[in-house]
TrEMBL record:
Source species: Actinosynnema mirum (strain ATCC 29888 / DSM 43827 / JCM 3225 / NBRC 14064 / NCIMB 13271 / NRRL B-12336 / IMRU 3971 / 101)
Record localization: Cell membrane
Pfam families referenced in this protein's UniProt entry, alphabetically: FtsX (PF02687), MacB_PCD (PF12704)
Protein name (Swiss-Prot/TrEMBL): ABC3 transporter permease protein domain-containing protein
UniProt cross-references to InterPro entries, sorted A to Z: ABC3_permease_C, MacB_PCD, Macrolide_Exporter_MacB
Length: 838
């Protein structure tokens, strides 16, 4: 039997290798994801290991036993006084604004440079570290993005204590960990400068270097005794171990979504393999029957089919592993191009876990997918060696009631889950239930595939039949001849297309809903904001913007804060033009200085009514004065209510300025011209940034398009595998129908008509899968989109017809390409040799 298996593998080598490509693509996805995850984990560990190198003891605020939000300066002195400590430094962070080479402020994360060189967590790249309070070193990414360089003079604008003129004296390296991309600009300064950047810079940690002969454990206990129970004191090794544990969880969060998409690709690939072995077993009916005649038992036949699957899985694993490593390396290079640091081969680690996972996935998926066809092979009776292959149409009809009953149960369960998703109050529960319902409905459609093939195929075949005549009608008949095979082939495409379409519908709906809400929320043409949180725009800026000839109205705002929430101070002229509240109770006509209009939501949550007084203040002191409530309103972009601009300016007198300025252009002024005029004013103010509803809309559209592009790329692999499955099925069917094809040629069918027949058959299968997937995807997309509703948000359903049309056209083109090789082979087979086939 072993020799028979080996001989069979040799005879079908090309066929099996071709079929293994589907699994190889899925394995490549899994391998690439795991390798990329390992690379990110390695770079994260490298980056965070720097923070604990040479650290003997670390002290942080004990959140469970302390009310402190930052470590006071006195704690550093206490640590330095502990015997056995040769050096100690505090690690403080403050958010400020760094003025770039174009004169515009950019938010920056500024950290303290340790005075003890051994405790510095940064590696110098060029120049030197700052030595005085008028110097700064920037990370390498910041140098590129700001246009600054060593020797450049810049301004660091703190939120509380004014501006500081600094010289860039050096650059330091950041890790290639892409997780650190979100930090923005980063810089390090001396402790002397840090002390002037804020009233209380956030000091998160005090680290200590051990003197020779001092053990970290003894030093930890001594520091803990000196600081007291408000602090969590650990050795550097403990800090590193705890950090690595957290990083491991982050790695799972990063790779899990990618592995979900990889699993989808593998499910689609398993469908292709299942269909391949089903066809191969059907084609080998006589061969298997002869084996039974000469003494092979059922288990030997079963093992022979699984042996072929095992070989195919091994080949797919090798191909997929190599391709996955290449994909991971390319992604690493892409991350480097985004500015996440340098990349190298060392940052694309290959572990035994990844290798074993590749082979386990490739072999298991292939063998499991081939198990049912292998079981079917054991049912071939020896007498089958004397008769032709039996069509499976009867099998489909016999299984019809069972299929319908099972599918009905899935539909009921799926519909129930969708109803739960629509009614759930929590977003997570709503999305989970909707997604579960979608998967159940998808399973029902796949299960009903053999019963749907006939009606859908006839409907789709009408137009080709009218256009191309006999070849197209033969193609329709071929697609209907074996509904199980056609359904199995199209099922993979249904899965891929339905997911792509549902995600596209969700993305389009989110985009359309956001656009509609923007139009409602932003009656102003432009809004000038501060680029740095906590820094106010100059008071004079609003008047300068209002003096621009193209501007009809420039309305400044200022915020005041209550114990919970904030209120917007505006001029009365802004009401009804750029601020559009709707009065629920009371009147805005009476809104004067010292008075407040609160939103209906705030009034209910705080138990406030007209006539009550609310304590407000600035960010630091929210108990400066009281305002009387004179109205209850609803509206957008008004915080928790409105007061007068004069009231807000009085409350914020310690930090004069405006939160933003809303600008309305004169009638007939072109938006581009208006913006250009505004920029002439804002260019002289580093903090001022102009935004508009149109730009926000473009940003949202760009983000949605990026998300869709990412998902399309990931699911595109599953669709590619499904289309490959069509080509594979068609190629195997051509081999199976060699004698039939020769007979058609003998009856007058030309080579061109034969090619056309196979192309139409391929297109019909692609359109069948795409059409069913399209209908299902739109329904699922609607269900998922509806689950986002609530809290007064009315979701707008949007079906991107253009994108879906492009996808259908792409499916047709891919189907034509998929049919090219099988059609060429069929046309090249001579009539005589074809008739001689059995």
């Amino acid at each position: 039997m072993l020799r028979t298996i080996i001989a069979g593998l040799r005879a079908r080598t090309a066929r099996l290798v071709l079929s293994s490509i589907a699994i190889a693509l899925g394995v490549a996805f899994v391998t690439g994801t795991l390798v990329l995850g390992d690379a990110i984990d390695a770079s994260s560990r490298e980056e965070y290991a720097k923070s604990s190198r040479n650290v003997a003891v670390s002290a942080q605020v004990n959140g469970d036993a302390s009310e402190l939000t930052s470590i006071p300066a006195s704690a550093l002195a206490e640590v330095r006084a502990v015997p056995g400590v040769s050096g100690a430094d505090s690690r403080a962070t403050v958010w400020a604004a760094l003025v770039d080479s174009r004169g515009k402020a950019r938010e920056a994360r500024v950290q303290t440079l340790a005075t003890t060189p051994e405790l510095r967590e940064f590696d110098l790249a060029d120049g030197r570290f700052p030595q005085s309070a008028d110097e700064i070193a920037l990370d390498e990414r910041g140098v590129k993005s700001t246009g600054l360089k060593i020797g450049s003079t810049t301004t660091l604008m703190s939120q509380e204590n004014g501006d500081h003129r600094l010289t860039v004296v050096g650059t330091y390296r950041q890790s290639s960990n892409p997780m650190s991309l979100g930090y923005g600009e980063q810089g390090v300064v001396t402790p002397e400068l840090m002390a002037t950047l804020g009233d209380e810079p956030v000091t998160g940690e005090v680290v200590a270097l051990a003197a020779p002969g001092s053990s970290p454990e003894q030093l930890r206990d001594a520091v803990a005794a000196a600081l007291g129970g408000e602090y969590r004191v650990r050795t550097g090794a403990q800090v590193e171990a705890d950090t690595m544990e957290q990083l491991a969880k982050q790695g799972v969060n990063f790779t899990l979504p990618l592995l979900v998409f990889a699993a989808i690709s593998l499910v689609v690939a398993s469908m292709v393999i299942y269909n391949t072995f089903t066809i191969l077993v059907a084609q080998r009916t006589k061969e298997l029957a002869l084996l039974r005649c000469v003494g092979a038992n059922r288990s030997q036949v079963f093992r022979s089919v699984l042996a072929e699957a095992l070989v195919m899985g091994l080949v797919a694993s090798v191909l997929g592993l190599g391709a996955g490593l290449g994909v991971a390396a390319l992604l690493q290079q892409g991350i480097g191009a985004l500015g996440a640091g340098s990349t190298s081969a060392a940052q694309t680690p290959i572990t035994w876990t990844t290798v074993l996972a590749a082979f386990a996935v490739g072999v298991l998926v292939t063998v499991l997918a081939a198990a049912l066809p292998a079981r079917k092979a054991t049912r071939v009776a020896p007498i089958a060696a004397l008769r032709n292959q039996i069509d499976s149409g009867d099998d489909v009809r016999r299984a019809g009631k069972l299929r319908i009953a099972s599918a009905a149960l899935l539909v009921v369960a799926g519909a129930g889950a969708l109803v739960v998703g629509q009614r759930a109050e929590q977003l997570e529960m709503s999305m989970f239930a909707s997604a579960a319902g979608a998967m159940l409905l998808l399973a029902a459609v796949v299960l009903l595939g053999p019963l749907l093939v006939g009606p859908v195929n006839k409907l789709l075949g009408i137009v080709p039949g009218l256009l191309f005549g006999v070849p197209a009608k033969l193609a329709v008949g071929n697609a209907e001849r074996n509904p199980r095979r056609t359904a199995a082939t199209t099922a993979a495409l249904i899965v891929g297309v339905s997911i792509v379409v549902s995600v596209t519908v969700v993305g389009g709906s989110v985009r359309e809903t956001a656009t509609q809400r923007l139009d409602e929320q932003y009656p102003a043409d432009f809004t000038v904001n501060s680029s740095v949180y906590g820094r106010q725009l100059p008071v004079a800026l609003a008047d300068r913007l209002g003096a621009v000839p193209q501007v009809a109205q420039a309305e400044p705002t200022s915020e005041v804060y209550a114990e919970s929430g904030y209120f917007i101070g505006v001029r009365r002229s802004a009401l009804g033009s750029v601020v559009l509240p709707e009065v629920v109770e009371g009147s805005l006509d009476a809104l004067g200085d010292g008075e407040l209009a609160v939103t209906e939501e705030y009034a209910k949550s705080a138990g406030i009514k007209i006539g009550d007084r609310v304590k407000v203040g600035d960010v630091e002191n929210r108990d400066k004065t009281e305002l009387e409530v004179v109205a209850v309103v609803t509206g957008r972009q008004i915080g928790y209510g409105l007061t007068t601009l004069a009231t807000a300016e009085s409350v914020n007198s310690a930090q004069p300025g405006h939160s933003n300025v809303m600008v309305k252009l004169k009638e007939g002024v072109d938006t581009a011209d208006g913006r250009a005029a505004l920029e002439k004013v804002t260019d002289t103010s580093p903090l001022a940034v102009i935004s508009s509803a149109a730009e926000t809309r473009d940003l949202i559209n760009s983000q949605v398009d990026q998300m869709l592009g990412f998902v399309w790329a990931l699911i595109g692999l599953a669709v590619l595998i499904a289309l490959f499955g069509i080509a594979n099925t068609l190629a195997l069917s051509v081999l199976e129908r060699t004698r039939e094809t020769a007979l058609l040629r003998a009856l007058g069918l030309t080579k061109g008509q034969l090619r056309l027949m196979l192309v139409v058959e391929s297109v019909l299968m692609a359109l069948m899968g795409a059409t069913i997937g399209l209908v299902l995807g739109i329904g699922v997309g609607w269900a998922l989109t509806s689950s986002f509703g609530g809290d007064g948000i009315e979701i707008v359903l949007d079906v991107p017809v253009g994108q879906i049309a492009v996808m259908l056209v792409a499916a047709v083109i891919a189907a034509v390409i998929a049919a090219a090789m099988p059609a060429r082979r069929a046309a090249r087979t001579s009539i005589v040799s074809g008739m001689a086939e059995e």
